[in-house]
Specification:
The complex is a heterodimer of chains A (140) and B (401). Chain A has three helices and eight strands, in the order ββββαβαβαββ. Chain A has one domain: 3-Layer(bba) Sandwich (Glucose Oxidase, domain 1). The mean pLDDT of chain A is 94. Chain A is globular, with a radius of gyration of 14 Å. Chain A has 140 residues and is of the alpha/beta class. Chain A has an eight-stranded mixed sheet. Chain B has three domains: 170 residues, Aconitase, domain 3 (2-Layer Sandwich), CATH 3.30.499.10; 100 residues, Rossmann fold; 121 residues, Aconitase, domain 3 (2-Layer Sandwich). Chain B has 17 helices and 16 strands. In chain B, the strands form five sheets. Chain B has a five-stranded parallel sheet. In chain B, helix 3 links the parallel strand 2 and strand 3. The chains are: A alpha/beta (140), B alpha/beta (401). The interface between A and B is large, with 37 and 41 residues.
Chain lengths: 140, 401
């Protein structure tokens, strides 16, 4: 990989790192089991996978105006929230939930990031500067 | 982002720490969306949910001294009056709802406890800048009433009610209200139910502002309620247009602002049937209960249900969830007696996604609303989704096709 640091834009401040988990589908955090962090939504791209401690790369949020906050809150209380979130389509519900739960979130990350990133890559997100650094690419 | 003198004073804490906290959150939201200023609002609706995060946030900001300058109407939790003493409801459930009630009362909310403010209790006028959360409400007030609100979360709408401002971005600006996805509806829209399924086509429609063409010229308020509610169950939509029907889409040209749509989608009967099969539990079986009212049913829907059950006996428990206002009308109009005599219940101020339905855990119900079937999954309820009339017939027989 030629470029290791990708530029993005701050949505919700903070620093975090973790393994990447990519979802092609929009995410509704309420249908994730807070006890395990596992997505329980039927037919979802991440069904059966855990978001706990991951740097979650996904298009954006979906669902009602209350469940994102509660979903993230319950995950945070059980220490199963994602470490950071990288999104493409910010919406007020998801953005507000990330801000009040103090979870780092960035958007508008370089197209090159999306061309190279894969599940399991270890990345560092500095939401304050908007930068995403790929620390270690996964071998798988 | 530039703040005026009063907004700066709010941020600096001159209006108390609670207001400062709200302004700080709104500033972060504004910056995330590239807003350049804050603009005043004249109405708000907060999607109170009586969930732990809801209570945590409202109590936190209230404790810091926040008070609403624009009194927001509120969504339902569950009715303490109706459910206190029910074996389902545990002391901790009562405590949670009591604390939610007291916190919102204290912060200065209008305790309407209904998710359909746009059907009666809080209707903005064309062009009015407001902060509405509740995912069925935001598309309704933007699309049908032509008011301007972003798809606020419960918490961002509460912050707006506290400061009296919203950051100016997104759907507050005319250029962002134009449609960008052409949705040609070839499906037969026989009843309000098909609008539930059309709304659930979010995956196929994709993200953006859909412009529907090919819909009938007469569309009921309930159909519009269904469409908005389901669009935001299957996706995240602040607004849609219906050409020749909604106020900012008199023509295709106006709906798209003269531009070309970025996508075109065709929705057929087959699409609607496929999505129904995907989201509904399999039919042709016995059912344990029926639930209507996600979002809260209107008086017309109560009338329709009453007509079908009049003089008959329901085979399974049947719940009609609605606003206290509609319940009062139902009582006054003799509909409540008809429904009660048949064995059904009309419950005010309550939502299907609440702890008061504990006894329905592990049971299978019928509902006309995909949204009703979606969220309570976490509470272990499963649903077969059918049109309203079929659901009521199923409730009379105790089984469904």
């Amino acid at each position: 990989m030629s470029q290791q640091i990708f530029k993005g834009h701050k949505v919700s401040e903070g620093l975090a790192e973790g393994a990447v988990l990519i979802s092609q589908d929009a995410i509704m955090f309420y249908l994730i089991d807070p006890q395990t962090g596992i997505v329980i939504e039927k037919g979802h791209f991440l069904e059966g996978k855990s978001v706990a401690g991951k740097v979650l790369v996904f298009p954006g949020g979906k669902g009602s105006s209350v469940v994102q906050a509660d979903g993230l809150y319950q995950l945070a209380v059980k220490k199963n929230a994602p470490a950071a979130m990288i999104i493409q389509y910010p919406d007020t519900v998801l953005v507000t939930s990330a801000i009040i739960m103090e979870l780092p979130m960035v958007d508008r990350v370089d197209e090159a990031f999306y061309q190279t990133v894969k599940d399991g890559d270890f990345v560092r997100v500095n939401a304050d500067t908007g930068e995403v650094e790929v620390v270690l690419a996964s071998n798988e | 982002m530039e703040l005026d003198k009063r907004q700066q004073e709010m941020l600096a804490g001159q209006y108390g720490n609670g207001t400062a906290m709200a302004m700080k959150i709104q500033l972060a939201i504004g910056e995330a969306f590239g807003a350049s200023r804050m603009v005043p609002i004249t109405r708000a609706h907060v999607a109170l949910s009586n969930q732990e995060a809801d209570l945590w946030f409202v109590e936190k900001i209230l404790k810091a001294g926040a008070k609403c300058v624009i009194s927001p109407t509120t969504n339902p939790g569950f009715s303490l009056q109706y459910f206190t003493g029910c074996p389902d409801v545990l002391p901790e459930d009562i405590e949670l709802m009591n604390r939610t009630h007291n916190a919102y009362k204290e912060i200065g909310a209008v305790l309407t406890y209904t998710c359909t403010p746009y059907m009666g209790s809080n209707i903005p006028h064309f062009g009015e800048i407001v902060a509405f959360s509740e995912s069925s409400a935001t598309p309704f007030i933007n699309s049908v009433w032509g008011a301007r609100s972003n798809r606020e979360s419960a918490q961002s709408a509460l912050c707006a009610a506290i400061t009296g401002y919203v950051p100016e971005y997104g759907l507050l600006l005319a250029e962002n209200r134009l449609g960008d996805i052409l949705v040609e509806v070839k499906a037969t829209m026989k009843s309000d139910f098909e609008y539930q399924l059309l709304g659930y086509m979010g995956k196929k429609i994709g993200s953006g502002i859909p412009v529907f063409v090919g819909l009938p010229q007469t569309i009921s308020p309930e159909a519009l309620m269904n469409l908005g509610a389901q669009l935001n169950t299957s996706g995240a939509y602040g607004m849609y247009h219906i050409v020749g029907f909604t106020p900012e889409a008199r023509t295709v040209e106006q709906a798209f602002g003269g531009k070309k749509p970025k996508r075109s989608v065709v929705i057929t009967d087959d699409d609607l049937q496929k999505i129904l099969a995907e989201i509904s539990a399999a039919g042709d079986r016995k059912v344990d209960f029926a639930m209507f009212g996600c979002p809260h049913i209107s008086i017309s829907q109560v009338q329709m249900i009453a007509e079908i059950v009049n003089g008959k006996k329901l085979a399974i428990e049947t719940w009609l969830l609605t606003s206290s206002y509609t319940k009062q009308l139902a009582e006054r109009m003799g509909l409540q007696k008809i429904i009660n005599d048949a064995g059904g219940e009309i419950v005010e101020d309550s939502c299907p996604d609440q702890p008061c339905w504990r006894h329905l855990q592990g049971k299978v119900g019928v509902t006309d609303s995909p949204k009703c079937a979606y969220y309570p999954k976490r509470r272990g309820m499963d649903f077969i989704i059918r049109d309203l009339a079929t659901c009521v017939e199923a409730a009379l027989k105790g089984d469904v096709q």
